[in-house]
Amino acid sequence: MNQLLSITNHFKLVGTVKEITPFGEGMINSTYRIKLKDAQEEYVLQKINHDIFQDVDLLQNNIKRITDHIRHKLTEAGETDIDRKTLTIIPTLDGKLYYFDGKSYWRITLLISNSKTFEAVTPEYAYYAGQAFGNFQSMLADIPGEPLGETIPNFHNMENRLESFRLAVKNNVAGRLDEVKDLVDEVEKRAYEMCQCERLYREGKLPKRINHCDTKVNNMLFDDSGKVLCVIDLDTAMPGFVMSDYGDFMRTAGNTGREDDQNLDNVSFNMDIFRSYTKGYLESAKKFLTPLEIKLLPFGARLLTYMQLSRFLADYLNGDTYYKINGPLHNLQRSKAQFKLLQSIEAHYKEMEAFISSLTEK
Ligand code: GN1
Ligand code: MG
Fold this sequence. Notes:
This protein is of the alpha+beta class. The chain has helices at about 1-10, 55-75, 125-140, 160-170, 180-195, 195-200, 240-255, 270-285, 290-295, 295-315, 330-345, 350-360; strands at about 15-20, 30-35, 40-50, 90, 100, 105-110, 210, 220, 230, 240. The chain folds into two domains: about 1-110, Phosphorylase Kinase, domain 1; about 125-360, Alpha-Beta Complex (Aminoglycoside 3'-phosphotransferase, Chain: A, domain 2), CATH 3.90.1200. Helix 7 (about 240-255) packs across helix 10. The protein binds 2-acetamido-2-deoxy-1-O-phosphono-alpha-D-glucopyranose and magnesium ion. Magnesium ion binds near residues 28, 214 and 233.
């Protein structure tokens, strides 16, 4: 507490700190909740994971630009209670967006009161989530100035991910290649098709827009009435293809099982979640998406599941150096579960396309 307290002394808080306690489920940054003695305001203190986010200046500047722009949009639209609808970065005493203590990087945001998060979704919440992530992309479509920087370079670039995957296969550091040969073949079979977004981009046919790049349902805050208040966890917001965000929500919320389910029978694609999310998403995003982007949404669900398969499998081949694991087979289990989900998405592909056509032809 004393060390944390001395960190908070460097920020412009409106009162004296009473209590600092661990907060949330985040796996990347360390997060704490701050309460004050003499004011209602609460804050969120985070130690930024500098191994993963190497350019903290760029990271914090991105978040500042995003939240300023959203704030501006909400004000223009006549919204009230804006401090609960976008994050507020609390500056340091010398006006910076983070504090460096010589070893670690720290930041503080205002805590959004009376809000909650969920780990799994019903179709109803998927619908709201779709609207909210569509609004998020929509509000950021005209952010002024230079394009936002990539906080993790090539984060959702499939060509780049495949390069890393092939290197892992080639090096076979952990000697596990023989046992996963079939899965490696499944990845390779689809490799060319899965890189189509990067090709379409080079041909000038597909734009990059600001994406959230971690579109899980627990990255949005809901109010007591079930309405989405605010999209949070903006660390990976950066330019990319819209089907990335769409696809990552499908991959996570649209899985009837867990990401690392031991029982593959649990894993399949949930078409109810797909329909609700897609409906909500298109309601808010249809106005700025191109016909090609809309057509490629089902591809996004395939792509992000495939990308995650290649990432888990590469990590297994590399001897588990990136993801936290609960045992030596964890990354293999995750890979198998992602592959099962991929097959299920592929089996529903035509149905997904037909549903999207039915929404856009209306
Ligand atoms: C990581 O932060 P977390 O655990 O939600 C990863 C995502 C993956 C996800 C798979 C910075 O996200 O890209 O989709 O694991 N984040 C980073 O569960 O690599
Ligand atoms: Mg995260």
